[in-house]
């Protein structure tokens, strides 16, 4: 029995037993069995059928190979700068307090466009969609095993006018498609696309690319000057001498573009990936006053927003097959916790979780059959981060 369950949610042992079965894994070949076998206890969950790629070779050291299927997934992505308010209501509905201080900053985010970067794509929150496409996080880039992903990238950061890039995790690429800037190899193609210019990245999806991955700006380090006068002094007071020296010398920060919002999720599927009714994309990230001096405080963000009433509200219906694709970037380690729900630790293994550790650039893919109507919270279970903004609602009808 979870400590978070409300009194009226208490169940006897028998119904609790049945509930555990409902949240069985949907991963791998066990999906169909999991969805129809709700009456069986979790311990009797069928072992998922091994994925096809493991059946092709008995050698665990066999090289993963990319076999092109001839399909190219083309994306037209633009880095756009915009003013972004992390707390649009100005209110923290969990603590019941108004948020004073500056919560708005000049953000930069990836947006998906029609070919030629003419018009932003409409929001699509469906399980195969690009998501809200509002900039933070960027669009969901989707592909299947055997696909080539071709990203036509344009840097439209007309605020900072810094170079930017796109660096993917999980897919296959060579040096010219890494999008990662290093000082001793500054001319690497695609690593620092200047403002107003474009670059095309090509990434391949071998079988080992199945899953949820982050992508983000990995271009040249930059710094935002600390405000002078009273604001700058308060930054110095709060962060101490080391930080004050860092700010006064304006040392560049690596991956500051990602901190400003240039991040997103890449999802690669294969024929064994279960079909779902709902797919939620959740990015855990942080903005730090030491890096963005105009902010009134550090903020712990879900999809660019902080505090209950501002963070996304996800919805599902009983009977829905649900997947969360969760990713994280920043300086902090977080613990994703979902009230009223549990999910399998790993496909084919006994044991369930309702909280899971996630750190910078790691991901979680959570799947379950929805069986528990209610108004639930999801949040980071590091209390400091929960109070810093990482809490949201999940409503099941
Ligand atoms: Cu956290």
TrEMBL record:
Example GO biological process: iron ion transport
Comp. bias (Low complexity): 32-46
GO CC term, one of those recorded: plasma membrane
PROSITE patterns named in the record: MULTICOPPER_OXIDASE1, MULTICOPPER_OXIDASE2, TAT
Annotated Plastocyanin-like domain residues: 130-230, 300-396
InterPro entries hit by this protein: Cu-oxidase-like_N, Cu-oxidase_C, Cu-oxidase_fam, Cu_oxidase_CS, Cu_oxidase_Cu_BS, Cupredoxin, TAT_signal
Bias kind Basic and acidic residues: ranges: 1-19
Keyword terms, alphabetized: Metal-binding, Oxidoreductase
Region described as Disordered: spans on this chain: 1-63
Stored Gene3D superfamilies: Cupredoxins - blue copper proteins
Molecular function GO terms recorded: copper ion binding; oxidoreductase activity
Record-linked PANTHER family: MULTI-COPPER OXIDASE, PLASTOCYANIN-LIKE DOMAIN-CONTAINING PROTEIN
Protein name: FtsP/CotA-like multicopper oxidase with cupredoxin domain
């Amino acid at each position: 029995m979870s400590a978070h369950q409300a009194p009226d949610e208490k169940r006897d042992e028998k119904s609790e037993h049945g509930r555990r079965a409902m949240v069985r894994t949907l991963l791998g070949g066990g999906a169909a069995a999991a969805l129809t076998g709700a009456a069986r206890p979790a311990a009797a969950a069928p072992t998922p059928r091994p994925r096809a790629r493991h059946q092709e070779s008995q050698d665990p050291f066999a090289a993963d190979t990319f076999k092109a299927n001839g399909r190219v997934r083309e994306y037209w992505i633009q880095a756009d700068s915009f003013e972004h308010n992390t707390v649009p209501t100005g209110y923290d509905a969990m603590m019941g307090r108004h948020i004073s201080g500056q919560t708005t900053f000049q953000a930069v985010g990836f947006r998906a466009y029609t070919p030629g970067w003419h018009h932003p794509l409409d929001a699509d929150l469906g399980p195969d969609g690009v998501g809200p496409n509002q900039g933070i996080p960027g669009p969901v880039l989707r592909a299947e095993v055997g696909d080539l992903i071709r990203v036509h990238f344009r840097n439209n950061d007309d605020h900072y006018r810094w170079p930017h890039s796109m660096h993917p995790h999980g897919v296959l690429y060579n040096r010219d498609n890494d999008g990662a800037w290093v000082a001793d190899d500054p001319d690497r193609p695609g690593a620092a696309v200047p403002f107003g210019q474009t670059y095309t990245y090509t990434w391949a999806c071998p079988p080992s690319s199945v899953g949820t991955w982050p992508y983000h700006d990995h271009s040249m380090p930059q710094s935002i000057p600390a405000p002078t006068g009273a604001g700058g002094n308060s930054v110095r007071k709060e962060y101490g001498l080391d930080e004050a020296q860092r700010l006064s010398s304006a040392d560049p920060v690596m991956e500051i573009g990602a901190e400003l919002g240039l991040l997103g999720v890449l999802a690669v599927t294969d024929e064994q990936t279960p079909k779902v009714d709902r797919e939620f994309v959740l990015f855990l990230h942080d903005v730090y006053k030491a890096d963005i001096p105009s902010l009134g405080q550090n903020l712990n963000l879900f999809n660019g927003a902080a505090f209950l009433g501002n963070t996304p509200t996800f919805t599902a219906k009983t009977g829905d097959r649900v997947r969360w694709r969760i990713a994280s970037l920043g300086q902090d380690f977080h613990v994703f916790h979902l009230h009223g729900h549990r999910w399998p630790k790993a496909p084919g293994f006994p044991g369930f979780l309702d909280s899971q550790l996630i750190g910078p650039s790691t991901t979680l893919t959570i799947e379950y059959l929805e069986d528990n109507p209610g108004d639930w919270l999801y949040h980071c279970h590091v209390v400091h981060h929960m109070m810093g903004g990482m809490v949201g609602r999940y409503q099941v009808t």
